[in-house]
């Protein structure tokens, strides 16, 4: 992660977080742990909690704790323990916050607003978290500034599309040990993440069906060469189902009853609500563990449906998440925006803020330099022609 390494050197020199408490809610695996370390090297007192019980890796947590970061997370914790860890992290009265999915922001608004007394602001990297924050901002109920990492060019163009696209199928293939070629993959949602999942499925030889509620995205999927139809129709065709919408109950028990025997359900959205896992458990006449991280559910019609990783993020709960080269850019954005909050947060409006263009451009330049790629530059005459 050469981009983040260069930012670590800068932070070590400048100490932008000296005397500040930074709370992070991140998937606690090696790449995200490095982000926490970079913030710590910048002088921060860092408190790291997980953003998904199944993506937390205990060995990484142990190593992170040894490096000086306070870690509040364990793999496979209960929902109650998960919430308690988040509350413990926030109870330190943070100055800066790095959120993933909007959980920390929700607690600070709905449960313990008193813990935000020192908060200068923070940033959020997921589509799901940004939707939650924007809804709160529209209602005039966002109490601190939050940078929208998700919509930065160096995030959604690469992390969402290439990172999600590759890591989702990596998680599915390593967990099922099944071939993708020749099968039908149903991708629910054609945002940047859905585009990546569909693209990689096509590259692996699958026939791809996309389901959408947005007519513009649906046309885009059609012109990208994919079949588009409602989930009610796609349910009968799919061998693999991947939800990437940020919404809940995208795949319902009614859809499941229409599926093929042996259909495999997965979710790549932040929360485990896109596939109605609870409805599946209640509907099934029996269930069994088919393989590690795969539960089989026998339906009343005699068919068996398989659910990977309890319906949680398949690329992290059943894999190692996005490749390091991709997360290098996303975490660089978060680190630099955290610095911007630390230095200028009191002057920022209480809104969901776009990542400053200078930060987005700098991350791209650092990445290109790490890749050994050079760019042309405009001559003074060209600058005058374009802008004069």
What can you see in these coordinates?
By secondary structure, the chain is α/β, with parallel strands linked by helices. The chain is 45% helix and 17% strand. It has 16 helices and 15 strands. β2, α3 (58-66) and β3 form a beta-alpha-beta unit. The longest helix has 24 residues, at 153-176. The radius of gyration is 22 Å and the shape is globular. The relative contact order is 0.14.
Shape: globular
Helical content stands at 40-55%
Number of helices: 16
> Rg, please?
22 Å
Which spans of ≥5 residues are poorly predicted at pLDDT below 50? none
Distance between the termini: 39 Å
- Report on the biggest sheet: 8 strands, mixed
Number of strands: 15
Proportion of residues in β-strands: 15-25%
Structural class: alpha/beta
Could you report the average pLDDT, rounded to the nearest whole number? 95
Give the neighbour order of strands across the main sheet.
Answer: 9-8-7-10-11-14-13-12
Quick structural overview:
The chain is an alpha/beta fold and 388 residues long. It is built from 16 helices and 15 strands.
Summarize this structure as a short list of keywords or feature phrases.
alpha/beta; 16 helices
How are the SSEs ordered, and which strands pair?
Blueprint: H1 2-14, E1 21-26, H2 30-41, E2 45-50, H3 58-66, E3 70-72, H4 79-90, E4 96-99, H5 103-110, E5 121-124, H6 127-138, E6 146-148, H7 153-176, E7 184-188, H8 192-203, E8 207-211, H9 215-223, E9 227-228, H10 231-234, E10 240-243, H11 253-257, E11 264-267, H12 277-283, E12 286-291, E13 294-298, E14 304-308, H13 314-317, H14 324-344, E15 352-354, H15 357-371, H16 380-387
Parallel strand pairs: 1-2, 1-4, 2-3, 4-5, 5-6, 6-15, 7-8, 7-10, 8-9, 10-11, 11-14
Antiparallel strand pairs: 12-13, 13-14
